[in-house]
Amino acid sequence: MRYISTRGQAPALNFEDVLLAGLATDGGLYVPENLPRFTQEEIASWAGLPYHELAFRVMRPFVTGSIPDADFKKILEETYGVFSHNAVAPLRQLNGNEWVLELFHGPTLAFKDFALQLLGRLLDYVLEKRGERVVIVGATSGDTGSAAIEGCKHCENVDIFILHPHNRVSEVQRRQMTTIFGENIHNIAIEGNFDDCQEMVKASFADQSFLKGTRLVAVNSINWARIMAQIVYYFHAALQLGGPARSVSFSVPTGNFGDIFAGYLARNMGLPINQLIVATNRNDILHRFMSGNQYVKDTLHATLSPSMDIMVSSNFERLLFDLHGRNGAAIAGLMDTFKQGGGFSVEQERWTEARNLFDSLAVDDAQTCETIAEVFEQTGELLDPHTAIGVKAARECRRSLDIPMVILGTAHPVKFPDAVEKAGVGKALELPAHLSDLFERDERCTVLPNDLKAVQAFVSKHGNRGKPL
Ligand SMILES: *Cc1c(COP(=O)(O)O)cnc(C)c1O
């Protein structure tokens, strides 16, 4: 499989190089040159497969030419073997034909484990083969950092540095990062905010001289391998609910348009999906585009669903590329306008096409709490605030009660106790067994000033399994 950039100027790459690439050299994002398409008979024949075997069938075309089948199967079996639920991604029924797909049974209790557990293993496999090492420098406001560290902790050929804003992530989130020890794992608390952390990561990609020739790899959702891994659970859910003979709808809590873009790809690969609902919080750039054809930056609002607090949706460019007939020059132009602070609209027929593909809703904190309380009352199930936004959007936007509606359950409620408390649900939150002693564990973390040079000096001093690069 070959991958091309959404801005049309960077060289096409194979899977292995895309995995290690991050952004394309023209500033675009990589997408498959041709999307694989499965027949209904083929998809139907996958019913009842264990998750890792289904994952092999769905993702195999994307890695062809880079990873032999037997190796890929082994990697997938290991990846999904670490999940604590036998079904990996179980469905739980909330109401008639309404289901939550629980994507929080991985090591860090959020759906990001589905992609980052795989990414860590794929990186190590490819690097071993090449005899290379890489350094990961990533910024996190919470969920990505812990999932990336968990995914890379056993990697022989990866050193990982995760920057988080000092004293500005929740205690559960911090401890999920700082209690994992390894000579290749480095937690850095920056005396600044999340944007400061992200700026330092961006600057480090722009000028990599501090790495002395070692390659820098991205773990945020612009990395194609993350999107690829998320396609699988759409097939998994649909097959449980009578697909592909029957079509299924999905409501997806989203910020960076990563998870929902995976659903869009699943549909293009032949899975019958009726509605795809974009569910945002008050940071609603996606909903404003879908409802009013305006893609314009707003200020950042801090909400009860912090993992969706974004101003710009980085993966939206991948959809725009398709909406514009895969014309890279058109996308480069739009993104330029956007960068100048302009924002943009697209031509009427392209916007109509987007509206045919997606429904959308923005949900505020009060509605999020109401939904948590309402679902708890109706079912005894406790939702995390992100999932609650998905449920609210599903209930508002649903067009047919005959078609199963699946809400992606993106996190375990124990990660977001503030929202649960605000919702007034009187149920004690308990950490799952593998994390039950989280608050007693030792922590390891280095506090650094909000200074790029200090951070880069730290990375180059410890970037080779604790030793200098
Ligand atoms: C990251 C995250 C999201 C948003 O994911 P996107 O890829 O931006 O769609 C939603 N919920 C939780 C819990 C997350 O950690």
Report the end-to-end length measured between terminal Cα atoms: 33 Å
Q: Give the total of beta strands.
A: 14
Segments where pLDDT lies below 50 for 5+ residues? none
Beta content comes to: 5-15%
Second rung of CATH, namely the architecture of the domain at 86-108 and 224-422: 3-Layer(aba) Sandwich
CATH topology term of the domain at 86-108 and 224-422: Rossmann fold
* Structure ligands: pyridoxal-5'-phosphate
Arrangement of strands in the largest sheet: 4-5-13-10-11-12
Structural category:
alpha/beta
Number of helices: 18
Indicate the percent of residues in helices.
Answer: 40-55%
Based on CA inertia axes, which overall geometry fits?
globular
Main beta-sheet strand count, sense and barrel state: 6 strands, mixed
Structure explained in plain terms:
This protein has 18 helices and 14 strands. The longest helix has 19 residues, at 112-130. The model has no long low-confidence stretch (mean pLDDT 95). It is an alpha/beta fold and 469 residues long. The radius of gyration is 21 Å and the shape is globular. The protein has a domain at 86-108 and 224-422: Rossmann fold. The protein starts with a strand and ends in a 7-residue tail after the last helix. The protein binds pyridoxal-5'-phosphate. Pyridoxal-5'-phosphate binds at residues 110, 112, 143, 221, 253-260, 307-308, 386, 410-411.
